[in-house]
Amino acid sequence: MGRFSHISDVHLGAFNDPYLRKRNIDSFIWALEKSLEENVDFIIISGDLFNTPIPDVPQITNAIKKMREIVERDIKIYAIYGSHDYSVTGSSIYSILVAAGIISDLHRSRENNGKIVLEPVVDDKTGAYIYGMYARKGAMESEIFEKITINPPPEVFKIFAFHSAISGISKDMQFNMPEIPISYIPKNMDYYAGGHIHERIEMDLPEYGKIVYPGPLFASTFVDLEKIAKGGSCGFYIVDFSKGINKIEFIENEIIRPELVEINANGKIPEEIMREAISRIEALQLDGRYLLLKIWGELSSGRTSEVDRKKLIEIVKKKNAAGININVSQLTSREFKEIEIINRNQGNIELEIFEKFLKQYGGKNESLIGERGKNIAISLLNLLRIEKNDNESGPDFKNKIINATGKIIGEEEWK
Ligand SMILES: [Mn+2]
Fold first, then answer.
1. Nearest-CA neighbor of 4 among 48, 70, 83?
2. What is the pLDDT of residue 81?
3. Whole-angstrom Cα distance, residue 309 to residue 314?
4. Are 213 and 197 in contact (CB under 8 A)?
5. What pLDDT shows up at residue 120?
6. Which among 203, 205, 188 is positioned nearest to 244, based on CA atoms?
7. What is the whole-number distance in angstroms between the Cα of residue 228 and the centre of ligand 1?
8. For residue 238, how many other CB atoms are within 10 A of its CB?
9. Long-range Cβ contacts of 353-357 (<8 Å, 24+ apart)
10. Is 55 helix (H, G, I), strand (E, B) or coil?
11. What's the Cα-to-Cα distance from 294 to each of 2, 10, 312, rounded to whole Å?
12. How far is Cα 85 from Cα 134, in angstroms, rounded to an integer?
């Protein structure tokens, strides 16, 4: 008999807005306390515990303290790297927590004849066999996924933790990231602890088993918040098992339910948008509530910047709202098409450019073309974005970048 919590996509450190940032961290502390109250034997976090490899440290200190408290009560926190936790330079809070013994990283592997054999972590309290497969940015883990093999004894309770979208089952609509074919996923597990997809999915798959994505514990983007505002749920799972699963329960996180105002801007001018936004905000009871304002569509004339966000924020403040988040990422203008480019997601523009460029590239080096070439290009670009830390020496920084470059390109190809 055993019981565990399955938490995913926490994204600690997400949001610039202090109100949302605190709700995000409080959600994690709540989930840990709830797990303690429910007497779980262990906790699994299936990736994206952090929003960036090194989030703002003072902001996350309370979350780390709570994790330590849990571990001191002899409850293990098992986890895998999510696409947001990992840094090619190896500098991440996640890796520090592993080194400090607060997180038990689940990914254990060894190579055998071109295969990658995943080794289990056997939970000492329950005897559960837990396997973990990490994620990398842009689903670069898929190359390794293809080669993994698992040989568990038949009689044990088996969990497979991963942080990837699976084709045909779970699509990453929000970040538009590549998917892993289901054939790469090891069969015959009792529980698949999924992460990465910001959507709650629970399904039984023949030959596999129970596949569960809790979705985000709270939220890390406007889209996540929008889903909650529209009545969607966020939270985590508590699972009871013996030889197989006995019970699965979703614990809903009710920390906030934002109010959503959506304005269709098609064929309107900025003054009309402002008038509509103000009258709709004025009609709301906003005391202590958080407002999401989404303005989308194509303005018939004028610039998107003429939608006066400062003024809207002032109005919402006067109504004692907890805050406001204005989203104009899908607002364009017929007159000023260039604005459309500015509003498009930066990552998508980069991907598009690399894709186009790779099609023109006439080189023979196979590792530099196709998906792999694209992944290498994106990873190198991300690497070059990293700035030197205040306390880091020049040569240390240089070595870190050179080593990471070697890892991205593949050491052999350097020689
Ligand atoms: Mn995530």
1. 70
2. 95
3. 9
4. yes
5. 97
6. 188
7. 16
8. 21
9. 354/378
10. coil
11. 44, 24, 12
12. 10
User: What distance in Å separates the CA atoms of residue 73 and residue 53, rounded to the nearest whole number?
Assistant: 27
Q: Could you give the 3-state DSSP secondary structure of residue 26?
A: helix
How far is ligand 1, taken at its centre, from the CA of residue 93, in Å? 16
pLDDT given at position 412: 43
93 and 102 in contact (C-beta within 8 Å)? Answer: no
Q: How far is the CA of 23 from the centre of ligand 1 (A)?
A: 16
**Cβ–Cβ under 8 Å, residues 109 and 121:** no
Round to whole Å and give the CA distance between 96 and 380.
Answer: 24
Q: Which is it for strands 115-119 and 108-112: parallel, antiparallel or unpaired?
A: antiparallel
Question: Which tokens sit at 208?
Answer: 């596999």
Task: Enter the DSSP assignment of 138.
Answer: G
User: How many H helices and E strands in the chain?
Assistant: 11, 19
The reported pLDDT for the residue numbered 176 is 62
CA distance 198 to 347: 18
CB atoms within 10 A of CB 105: 17
Low-confidence ranges of the chain (pLDDT < 50): 339-340, 343, 412-415
Which of 146, 157, 196, 155 is closest to 175 using CA atoms?
A: 196
Q: Which of 6, 11, 84, 163 is catalytic?
A: 84
**Is 198 among the catalytic positions?**
no
Nearest alpha carbon to residue 163 among 148, 147, 146, 142:
142
Listing DSSP states for 283-315 in one string gives: TS--TT-EEEEEEEEEESSS-GGGS-HHHHHHH
Distance CA 189, CA 279 (A): 54
Helix locations, 93-192, DSSP H = 93-99, 142-145
- Contact call for residues 338 and 304 (beta carbons, < 8 A): no
State the distance from the centre of ligand 1 to the C-alpha of 386, rounded, in angstroms: 21
**Separation of CA 164 and ligand 1 centre (Å):** 10
Query: 306, 273 in Cβ contact below 8 A?
Result: no
Pairing of strands 121-122, 129-133: antiparallel
Residue 147: count of CB within 10 angstroms of its CB: 14
- pLDDT score for 411: 57
Tell me what pLDDT residue 276 has. Answer: 97
CB of 281 closer than 8 Å to CB of 248:
no
